[in-house]
Amino acid sequence: MTTRRRFLGLRFLAGAALLAAPAFLLAAEPNAPWRLPEQASTYAGRIDGIFNLILWITGIVFFAVEITLLVFVFKYRAKPGGKAAYTHGSNRLEVIWTIIPAVILVFLAVISQDSWAYIRNHFPASGTVIDITAEQFAWNIRYPGPDGKLDTADDIVTLNQLHFPVDKPALINLHSKDVIHSFFVPEFRIKQDAVPGMTTRVWVQAKHTGHWEIACAELCGLGHYRMKGYLTVETPEEFQKWLAETAAENKTESK
Length: 255
Known about the structure:
Elements: H1 3-26, H2 44-75, H3 91-121, E1 128-135, E2 138-143, E3 156-159, E4 161-165, E5 170-176, E6 181-185, E7 190-194, E8 200-204, E9 210-216, E10 228-234, H4 236-254
Helix pairs in contact: 1-2, 2-3
């Protein structure tokens, strides 16, 4: 084997190893920083299932294409005395690799419909009703007061502090005062734009208690970087206690 062939062989192996590296990363420690965040909501698993399926399909296609490219580069490299030859290609192959992606896309659309309908169309009949109005650069959060209705004098109001009880749906009405914002809690797999002049309804149900950060995932102005809130999921008893304390604070501030 000549020095040139050894060099090309080593380069091919190095390229294959580089392409295989992401597979080893995905198979590594489940809490590694490149992994998806924890699944804190009841429908997070559905979303991750679709995401992982798409990742596997695109990953397999990526490795197949890149390895084929390396093989062709190595096999059909320039050789002494070799001459370039024109080829028209194969219409049959072009039809095949056009149909296969189309079939995959249709397949993904069909199997994701159930999850989409569950998350977007299946709105729970009851739960904790919460009104969230985004503005530059804060989250205004409002709960019904003793009368059980929103937008009345006894509403309970907080700033950047969202609470709701565990194992019970939170029914959220999203609004915006000024520009487009995006309500984003990655651990709950919820990301929804808040659009001026519109009310967007979303829901989420926590699987366990804890504390998470609310981010704005839409560039909404110079202060976008500091537009964040905090989500606390607690037991029903702790939530009711927090509501009572916050209502008392609201009354004190209004005097």
